[in-house]
Amino acid sequence: MIKIAKLISGSKISAQIKDEVQAEIAQMKKEKNKVPGLAVILVGENPASKVYVANKEKGCNQVGIHSETIHMEDTVSTEEILAEIDKLNNRDDIHGILVQLPLPKQVDSGKVLMAIKPEKDVDGFHPVNMGKLVAQQDCLVPATPSGIVEMLKRENITLKGKNVTMVGHSEIVGKPCTLLFLNEWATVTICHIETKDLKMHTQNADIIVVATGVPYLIKEDMVKQGAVVIDVGINRITKEDASPELLEWRKQDFEKKGATLIGDVDFQKVEPKVSHISPVPGGVGPMTIAMLLKNTLKAAKTAAE
Ligand code: NDP
C-alpha cells in the first residue's frame, strides 16, 4: 500500500490565524477606536510583485487592517523612496511599512530597508530586528520563517532536539529560519550553493525546509522515511517546460493558465515517503501573508502601549 503523507495546509492554518487577528482588531477598534495600518511601497510593473501586493491588500481587508499602496515608477531614485518612507515613518495611523522587493537596479535596497523605523518594519528585514532575533529579544520576525515555525507548531511537530536541514541561506528565508529553529532547540544544518553533498545533509534530517527557487531539487532518495518536508519554493512552470507527469498532474492549470506553480521538492515522488509535507501552492505562501498581518497588529499594539 502506498503511504500518503499528511499535507500541512497553509491555507487552513492561515485562515485560523487570520480569524484570530481579525478578532483582536475588532476588540482594539471597540476599546481604543483604532485599527492597524499597513503601507506598501510598490515600484514598477513586475507582475509577480503586483500579485503579491494585491494579495497583501486582500488579506488586510479580510481582517480589518487599513491598507495603502504607494505605487512608484520604475525610474524612481533611492532618495524619492526614502522621502516616501520618511512620511510614513511619521504617520500615527500607519504602523507597518513594507517595500515590495525586488527594487530596480538604480535603487539602493539596503539603504531603503534601513530607512524604515524598526518598530514599523513588519517584514522584519531591518538589521535592528535581525539583531534582536539573534539575541532572542522581542522583535518583528520575517513573515515566511515565522509562518513555517507556526505551521509546524500547529501540526504538533516538535522542533526540540530534532535535526533540521535548511536548504537556502537567504536573508529573507534561510537565515532567519535557522535562528528560529535554533531558538526552539533544534540542531540545524544550513546548506547553500557551495554545499558539497546536499543529499548527505537532507537524508539525515528529521525536518527539511527548502527555499532555493530550484524546481525538483529535493528528490525521493534525498529524504529519510517519515521525515517532515516544508517546501518554500515558488516556481512557475509553463506548458512548454513541463514534464509529461506534471502536464498530467496539473492538467487543469495548464489548460486554464498555460502554466502551474510548483515548489523545490519533487512532490509526487517524495510525498509517499514522508510523514508530513507542505504543498505548493497552498503551503507556506498563505502563511506568509497571515504572519505579515499578525506583525502589523503587533506593531499597532506596541505603538498603542
Ligand atoms: P534567494 O535566491 O535569495 O536564495 C536562494 C537560496 O538557495 C540561496 O541561499 C542559494 O545559495 C540557495 N541555493 C540555490 N541553489 C541551490 C542548490 N542547488 N543547492 C543548495 N542551495 C541552493 O531566494 P529566497 O530565499 O528569496 O527564495 C527562495 C524561494 O522561496 C523562491 O522560489 C521564492 O520564490 C520562494 N519564496 C516563497 C515565499 C513564500 O511565501 N512561499 C516567500 C519568500 C520566498 P547561494 O546564495 O549560495 O547561491
Radius of gyration: 20 Å
Which hetero ligands occur in this complex? NADPH dihydro-nicotinamide-adenine-dinucleotide phosphate
Question: What is the CATH topology assignment of the largest domain?
Answer: Rossmann fold
Gap between N and C termini: 57 Å
Regions with little confidence, pLDDT below 50 for 5+ residues? none
| Count of discrete alpha- or pi-helical segments spanning 4 or more residues | 12
Structural class: alpha/beta
Major sheet characteristics:
6 strands, parallel
**Overall mean pLDDT:** 97
User: How many strand units?
Assistant: 11
**In CATH, what is the class of the largest domain?**
Alpha Beta
Helix fraction by DSSP (H/I, runs of at least 4): 40-55%
Q: In what range is the share of β-strand residues?
A: 15-25%
Taken together, the total number of domains comes to 2
Kindly report the spatial arrangement of strands forming the biggest sheet: 1-11-8-7-5-6
Query: For this structure, what is the CATH homologous superfamily of the largest domain?
Result: NAD(P)-binding Rossmann-like Domain
Rough outline: globular
Per CATH, which architecture of the largest domain?
A: 3-Layer(aba) Sandwich
Order of helices and strands: EHEHEHEHHHEHEHEEEHHEHEH
